[in-house]
Amino acid sequence: MLDEFTCKNIDMIVERVLKEALLNQPPIHIENLLSHLEIDRDFYNLEDPGLIRRIQHRIKIYGHRYGHGLIKVAKKVRLSALWLPDREQILVDSSLPAPKQKWASFHDVTHSLLPWQKIYFLGDTAETLEPDIQMRLEAEAHYGASALMFGGKMFTKEALDTDPQWSSIITLSKRYEGSYPTTLRRYVHFSHDLPMVLVVSTPRWMEISHDQVSPLRHFVRSKRFGKEFGNVTAGELLEEINYNTNRRKGGPVGDFTLPLSDLNGTSHEFRAESFFNQHYLLTLIVYQKPLTVQYVIIPDSCIN
Fold this sequence. Notes:
By secondary structure, this protein is of the alpha+beta class. The chain has 13 helices and ten strands.
C-alpha cells in the first residue's frame, strides 16, 4: 500500500495530464496519451534472435547501449515493458495479449510522468536496483496506470451511480474498455464506501499456474473492508468460493451469500458473484446487511 501523500501526488499529476491532453471522456486511449506526451511506443520480442542486431545501434537503456545484458535482465524480472527516459520511448513485450499490452503501456507511461522516478531509471538497472525500491516504483506505476486508464475521477463519479454488483462491472468495463480484472480492482478501491473484496483465484477444476504457489492470485480489499473486517482471511473466502461455484466453460459460475464476522464479532451478510474468464475466477464480494438474532421469550406457563 502506498502512503496517502504519494497517492495524492500521483492523482494530481494524472488529473493535470488528462486535462492538458483534453481527455475528458471515456474511454482513455493510450495512443492519444502517447501522442500528447510525445512518447514513442515500440514492441519487442525476447525470443526474436534478430532483436539486438536491429535496435542496439539506436537505443540506449539506462545510459548504456542496448545489448544482451538487457535481454537477460528482462527475462529475469519478467518485464512486460521498458521505459527509455533518454529516448522518450517505451518498449512493450509483443508476446503479451492485447489487454496486457495496453496495461503495460499505461504502466510505463506513468513511470515517465512521475518526476521523482527518473533518477532511478537513469542511474540504475532493473538488475541492480534494490528490491524494496523496485517494488515501490512498480506500485506507484500500477496506481498511476489505473488512474490514467479509468480517467481518474471520471470513473468514481460514474461508479457511484451504479449498484455494487457484477452487472455494473460489465457496463463500466465496456465504457472504459478495461478488462474485467482491472475494472474490478478500480471499482473496489474507487467506488462505493462499502466493505468489498475482489478475489482472483484458480478454479478448483483447473491446475494452478506455474507462477503461483496456491490457487489464490489476488486479494483486493476496499478500505472499509480492511478497517472493519481485517480478521477475514483470503483462505476463508476461497473455501466459500470453491464450495459455491459450478464448473462451466466461462461466464457466471456462482451467486451466493455468506456470513462474515467483523472485528467486534458481529455477523454480517455479504453477496458474492463469481465469473470465470477461462483463466481465473473473478469474485466480487459486497456487503449487504447486518445479521441480527431475534430472541423469542416464551412464558413459563406455555412450557408447563
